[in-house]
Design goal:
This is Uroporphyrinogen-III synthase. This protein folds into 2 domains: 2-14 and 154-238, Rossmann fold (3-Layer(aba) Sandwich), CATH 3.40.50; 21-146, 3-Layer(aba) Sandwich (Rossmann fold), CATH 3.40.50. Helix content is 44%, strand content 18%. It has 10 helices and 9 strands. The chain has a 6-stranded mixed beta sheet. The two termini are 15 Å apart.
């Protein structure tokens, strides 16, 4: 998408994920009658389910009855990437136009009642409290289960050093998560030195933009919604096309 605007983009993996509590996750998925629906705010939560379904017996149980039973209940998702993974396991996503946790919480609150059964929320260890807090304030029950942990990618420092030594100071740096800011920023500051003010920093969404501002970075653009198209359009506005 960035290439269509004449930009040359280099992707540097920032995060590694370790999946945990998978037996507990499948145990809960085996009892749809106990829940009012599912909530997904990250593609990783779906990856955890897909790992569970690699086991033949679990996949068989899912295809035979569990998928159908869960499909009588909502599967709330925060964006299109997560929605497409929900569809891959055979469920029908709702709320995918939300784009962030705040808006998804509003969407859920408009559809659920305090008398509903708890929503099952497979999530990461670093999840923000925005969605759980908003639902709690409305009395909508939510059961969180941590199914993955986020750590710094083992090759991150080396990859950043290689980029700067081979390509110099980037015209723009895009962050896709608060964790990315946390793990990357000090390396980028060190490698950029006095030239850091020449870099246009962009964010995939408002949550990441807040983390960047809290770390003292001036955010030049935030994608209107977390899609490649909106991100590319935002960078194009922030970055006149010259030597990029």
């Amino acid at each position: 998408e960035l290439g269509l605007y004449g930009f040359e983009a280099t992707l540097i993996p920032v995060l590694s994920f370790e999946f945990i509590s998978l037996e507990s996750l499948f145990e809960k998925l085996s009892h749809p009658e106990c829940y009012g629906g599912l909530v997904f705010t990250s593609p990783r939560a779906l990856e955890a389910i897909k790992i569970c379904l690699k086991e033949n017996s679990k996949n068989e149980a899912w295809l035979k009855s569990l998928k159908q039973r869960w499909n009588t209940k909502p599967a709330y998702v925060v964006g299109k990437a997560t929605a497409s993974l929900v569809e891959e396991i055979g469920l029908i996503p709702q709320g995918d136009k939300s784009g962030n946790a705040e808006k998804l919480a509003e969407y859920i609150c408009s559809r659920e009642k305090p008398t509903s059964s708890a929503l099952l929320f497979p999530c990461g260890a670093l999840k923000r409290e925005v969605l759980p807090t908003a639902l709690r304030e409305k009395g909508i029950p939510l059961e969180s289960l941590t199914v993955y942990q986020t750590t710094q990618h083992t090759d991150l420092q080396e990859a950043l050093s290689c980029y700067f030594s081979q390509q110099g100071i980037p015209a723009s740096v895009v962050f896709f998560s608060p964790s990315g800011v946390k793990f990357c920023l000090q390396h980028i500051q060190k490698l950029s030195g006095d030239f850091i003010n020449h870099i246009k920093f962009a964010a995939i969404g408002p949550t990441t933009a807040e983390a960047m501002e809290a770390a003292g970075i001036r955010v030049c653009c935030t994608a209107e919604s977390p899609t490649p198209q909106d991100l590319a359009a935002g960078i194009q506005k922030a970055l006149p096309l010259q030597n990029c």
